[in-house]
Amino acid sequence: MNPQFIMDGLVAGAMIGLGAIGVTLTYSILRFANFAHGEFLSWGAYLALAVSGALGFLATGLTRPIAPFSFGWSLPLALVIAIFLTGLLALVLDAVLFARLRSRGSAVIILVMASFGASLALRSLLEFLFTSKPAYYTKALQIAVRLGGGLRATPDQLLSLGVTVVVVVVIHLLLTRTEIGRSMRAVSENPALAGIAGIDVRRVIRFVWFIGAGLACIAGTMTGLLVQIRPYLGHDLLLPLFSAAILGGIGSVPGAMIAGLIVGLSEAGAVQLVGAEWRSAVSFVILVLVLLLRPRGLFGRPA
Amino acid sequence: MTGASPIPAAGAPALETRGLVAGYEPDLPIVRGVDLSVASGELLVLLGPNGAGKSTLVKAIAGVVPIHAGTVSIGGRDITALPAHRKIGAGLAFVPQTENIFATLSIQENLQIAAAVLPKARRAERIAAMYAQFPDLAVKPARLAGSLSGGQRQMLAIARALMVDPPVLILDEPSAGLSPKIVADVFSMLTEINRAGVTVVLVEQNVKAALAIASRAIILVEGRIGHEGAAQDLLDDPILARLYLGTGQAMEARRP
């Protein structure tokens, strides 16, 4: 068996983990499974593409690849802007849709169904705006470097892994060491008590939407960079994202990341062992097993 | 203690409700027109049979249950329309009956959350003051609040509420689920807090113990004030005691 699947699994797993952190945070605070989360990945990727294109148009020098990577400064700059835009998109979606349903006291299933609708609308809008033809941030080709042990990776892949590690550490510190993180954990445990204790629950919810969508944008852009940008990019990752969030334990950031890597590695392993056509079944099997055997996940608190 | 919030208007009651109608469903009010006036420095106990609306009344005052009509004011300031999270800043602290601490957070984090309402400069000092007042909590501040005993949880819940040095403290059945020994501790602590100048309103099922520390009692019946008077008079009045408090005879049947 070719050990390269480990590197492929790690890279895919890092993207899944990053997206799953957004899922686990929004799930634990908003208390419903937001099926439109995948669309934040796609929108993030396309927003980064659009902004990066605009930047490149304004200053051609920005598109010149930064050695050894395949992209120029226009992409990281565009990513920063796209994170804010995707966060804004999530806030708008919450304001026009979910906040209204919440204030009406709608049941969880209504919110879930609404998120399905939102997902469909957002995805169709992307296809309308950008067509369903795959797009790329850069046309530059990359040569994979040998890492030893039969593993190879492109500089872009290594950079993505590095960025993922940094982002996970930052989010973990945000949750455990800062006032807003403490408020998020308090709201996640007991929103009513959080209000009584003086926490502005609606502000925390807005913050969580923003962070979740921002992380989705990073994951989407990196997936777009390493594979390709398609309107279905996020939608196709939805099941792995939810598997990872639930395997990690809802609310746990390290859990979501580790579970993301587990899902990514399992998928890559399954491709090696039973064939590529089984890849998408892996997340499903993991999800079912976790729900049957350990519903609170690896790091979740007991119900 | 002095109130952290706006200085109460001279002579205004510490806590007042006028014509308060509240309940989870608009067409099914549980509190049906309550005029409550609590003078500064009082320790008032709210009594009444199950389903009389005691809990709903204090939750409505705290902003947890919707108010359909009437007003709530603290020190003469109308706070009816304030969202729940702003009431603490207006001087009203509330300790719910159950789930009144963040179990997945540490003791220190529970107190930090309460202190976040205060200006940054005062936070450390107030947290230290709470540890001084509740030494049990200071033993191991990093401990998860969920691992505390029932009595310690109640201490933490009260410390959390007192963090902002509120003029008014409302507690919903602080004795529920505690052993008699711990109940005595909690009640003596409430007496101390009250003596230090905090107006205390208490919902209780534990009638005798509550009347023993209260200055005044109000009995709610079917969402309205059925009787009010000095705590001692209630204890001495056998008819009232039998009618409303279930002392001497079985408690009035639980309402459907």
Q: What this model shows, in words?
A:
The complex is a heterodimer of chains A (303) and B (256). The relative contact order of chain A is 0.21. Chain A has helices spanning 4-30, 37-58, 74-103, 108-130, 155-177, 179-189, 191-196, 201-226, 233-248, 253-273, 279-293; strands at residues 145-148, 151-153. Chain A is mostly helical and 303 residues long. The mean pLDDT of chain A is 93. In chain A, a hairpin with a 2-residue loop joins β1 and β2. Chain A has a single domain (4-293), classed as ABC transporter involved in vitamin B12 uptake, BtuC, CATH 1.10.3470. Chain A has 11 helices and 2 strands. Chain B is α/β, with parallel strands linked by helices. Chain B is built from 10 helices and 10 strands. Chain B has helices at residues 54-62, 84-87, 107-115, 120-133, 135-138, 150-162, 180-195, 207-213, 231-236, 238-245, and strands at residues 15-22, 31-38, 43-47, 67-74, 77-78, 92-95, 168-172, 199-203, 216-221, 224-230. In chain B, α3 packs parallel to α6 (150-162). The relative contact order of chain B is 0.19. Classes of the chains: A mainly alpha (303), B alpha/beta (256). The interface between A and B is medium-sized, with 18 and 27 residues.
For the record, give the distance between the C-alpha atoms at the N and C termini of chain A, rounded to a whole number.
41 Å
Oligomer: heterodimer
Strand order across the biggest sheet of chain A? 1-2
Q: What name does the CATH topology of chain A carry? A: ABC transporter involved in vitamin B12 uptake, BtuC
The first-level CATH class of chain A is given as Mainly Alpha
Q: Give the percentage of residues in beta strands of chain B.
A: 15-25%
Q: For the residues shown, what is the average pLDDT of chain A?
A: 93
Count of the domains of chain A: 1
Q: How far do the termini of chain B sit from each other?
A: 43 Å
Structural class of chain B: alpha/beta
> What is the tally of helical segments of chain B?
10
- Using the CA coordinates, give the radius of gyration of chain B: 18 Å
The helical percent of chain B reads 25-40%
Name the helicity range of chain A.
over 70%
Low-pLDDT stretches of chain A: none
What strand order characterises the main sheet of chain B? 6-7-8-3-9-10
Low-confidence stretches of chain B: 1-6, 248-256
| Molecular shape of chain A | globular
| Main sheet: strands, sense, barrel of chain B | 6 strands, mixed
Which band does the percent of strand residues of chain A land in? under 5%
